[in-house]
Predict the 3D structure of the following.
Amino acid sequence: IKADIRGSMDINHKMRSRRLNPASYFSLNFFDPISAILFEYDASKVFIEGDAIILSIFENEDKPQGCYSVARACGLAIRILQIVQSYNEKNKENNLPILELGIGISYCQDPPTFLFDGDSRIMISQAINQADRLSSCDKLLRKIFKSQNDVFNLFVFETESEEIIETVDDSTYRYNVNGIELNEDGFNKLATEINLQTFTFPSEDESVKLYAGKVPLANGNYQRIAIREALIHKVQPTALDATRKVSKKYYEVCTHPKIYNFIYNQS
């Protein structure tokens, strides 16, 4: 799980101009409250990378039953955004900057590799690299979507360019501001962890396919999660104008109350 703060340099400048400590601001509004809830999801902190935090949830081979790594990762990501939004309300009242995040969740079946620098353990995993891409946000798309106030916070596109690329991920653009993207392997794993109900959420443009279920947490509580399945659009790489849909899908972990109210009323 990677949670990345958007516009941290601008926030840093605003805090310093007011003679306030940006490090304390990020700790109080982001790093500390996240650390306080990790035990509920059986999660651990991998490392802090500037304005981002990397978290992990492991599954052990000697405990094949009751593995909920992806489900709990989705629940944890939702809680992170809820915590940040709660602090944002207080910061607005005190005329302080608000935080915007992009979160990526990547499930990888292969075990990670660990290197050691003295007593420090360094984790190397494909999941970290992919979570980094999933949490990213294209600058042009951010300008385009900035004025929109929708229930969804993630949109993924793929370039129409016919140039040879090394990987498929290199051709994708995404808008991810206060959104959570789950990789396809993660969604497939999630479907084996918990029972998912399918819903069709009405939308102005087209109906939206949702999957919803309840996640058992490490502390014995349960948390409801909802996943939106959507098709990637092809776009022109210069103007980012949508041209057509492709068969590839992406998955957003939903956070908007309208989604959960709809699911509750339909259940």
User: Anything to note?
Assistant: Residues 164-169 have pLDDT under 50 and may be disordered. The first helix runs from residue 8 to 17.
